[in-house]
Design goal:
Layout lengths: L4 E12 L2 E7 L4 E6 L1 H12 L8 H11 L2 E12 L2 E11 L4 E8 L1 H10 L4 E4 H6 L4 H15 L2
Parallel strand pairs: 4-7
Antiparallel strand pairs: 1-2, 1-7, 2-3, 4-5, 5-6
Helix pairs in contact: 1-3
Length: 152
Amino acid sequence: MSKDVVLVKIKGILPVNNGEAVFLGNKQKVFVIQIERTMGEVIKMFIQNKPKQRPLTHDLMIQVFRGFGVEVDRVVITELRGTTYYARMILQQRNELARKVVELDARPSDCIALATAQKKPIYIASELFEQVEDMSHILDDIKKSSEGTEET
């Protein structure tokens, strides 16, 4: 994996016809990854620190990680093939003797959910960031139109 990455943050999660649109970006650019509706809801729960009646799959994964002294270090959205984004989750385990780093292939939605739950950074490969279409104007338009409807 290339070391050339750009830090991004979740700028918004909005419902679309067949799932959720996750807007990720920074001051320079915003891009969109489409994910399953349930994954969007999970990510929103982690963002809002909403309590859950029962642990979700991502909560279970975090508990397993903690049991083994592992944590998410960061996630990186690495490439786009067709309309499918790919990502890597970088895990680390530290103890008094050493630090072990493991890099896993994972769905971007799972990476975003776990990074959000553990307050870890989300990156995109620089080369990919240059290629993705800037959707800042669409997010701004949506925010402006929703502000107008909230007041009524």
